[in-house]
Amino acid sequence: MRTEKEMYHLILRTAEEDDRIRAVYMNGSRTNPAAPSDIFQDYDIVYVVKETDSFIQNKKWLNVFGDLLMLQEPDRNDLLTGLQRNVDRSYGYLMLFKDGNRIDLQLQTLEVMREEYAKDKLTVPLLDKDNCLPSIPSPSDRDYHVKIPDEAHFNSCANNFWWCLQNVAKGIWRDELPYAKNMFENVIRPCLDGMVSWWIGITNGFNISTGKMGKYFKNYLPAAYWNRYIATYSDGNYERFWTSIFEACGLFRLLAQDVADHFEYTYPSADDRHMTAYLKQVRNLPEDSQQIF
Could you tell me the residue range of the domain that residue 80 belongs to? Predict the structure, then answer.
């Protein structure tokens, strides 16, 4: 596997030798001093270019980066499926190489760079042939820190968590596993994860990031809480699914009550109590039942 030094040299040498490329900058985890470093970190690179068309029409120029294991062109995929993309302004290549390295390379015209460059505070300039890159502060992940929830967002999260569990329950009773699983993972879990993040925030001064999709939860939750979080995942077995649902309820209740107490918000105890009873009722409901209660 090529080293970080070799990859940076390759990325910059390619830009230096190609007159169409006028500047290079990087964002993502490699610019974040708080992010753990490992062999799977991508190189999130932006080439500021005179135009994009010549790059798109002849992809042989990508060969310089190494032997590809797989290439994805998100903008091309979008266009093929009927979505509108202005590829004259920007175009992306996601490249995974046979040695395990990955480069996420974005081409941007000068106009687009001026619109996007300062938006991500995890940005580092690497090359500037024309002094076109604006001056920016040193990279910081503060935009990714857990945000303090106001009372409306706390209430919405708790209400949505308890309300939508009824959909999971009826999906299981109807033997509609895809519906029940998708409802749990795509509606319930984001509410749980939001509460986990807020709890981590109040125990760490809201000056940390829990990472994309909560990937750093394990780093900040006590072992007992982390084990409870793990238990919210299950397979396609309905009994184990029910167990994971009640584990999620218990963990959500514990964390949400702490968050509510910290901010002097009101935890919806009645919703919790009523929906917990409802879930228990549906769990034990015969499949041929003609009434819920």
Answer: 4-143
| Residue bearing tokens 């490249």 | 95
CB-based burial, 224-237: b 16+ in 10 Å, e otherwise: ebeebbebbebeee
Residue 25 shares a structural domain with residue 39? yes
Beta-carbon neighbour count of residue 202 at 10 Å?
17
pTM of the entire structure?
Answer: 0.89
Instruction: Establish if 206 belongs to a structural domain.
Output: yes
Which residue type does 132 have? C
Type of residue found at 274: H
* Residue 74 CB contacts under 8 Å (≥ 6 apart), including other chains: 92, 94
In this predicted structure, the answer to whether residue 189 has a pLDDT above a threshold of 90 is: yes
pLDDT digits (tens, 9 = 90+) for 81-110: 999 999 999 999 999 999 999 999 999 999
pLDDT of res. 70: 98
43 Cβ contact list (under 8 Å, min separation 6): 7, 8, 11, 26, 28, 30, 101, 102, 103, 104
Indicate the number of domains in the chain. Answer: 2
Between the two ends of the chain, the Cα-to-Cα distance in Å is: 62
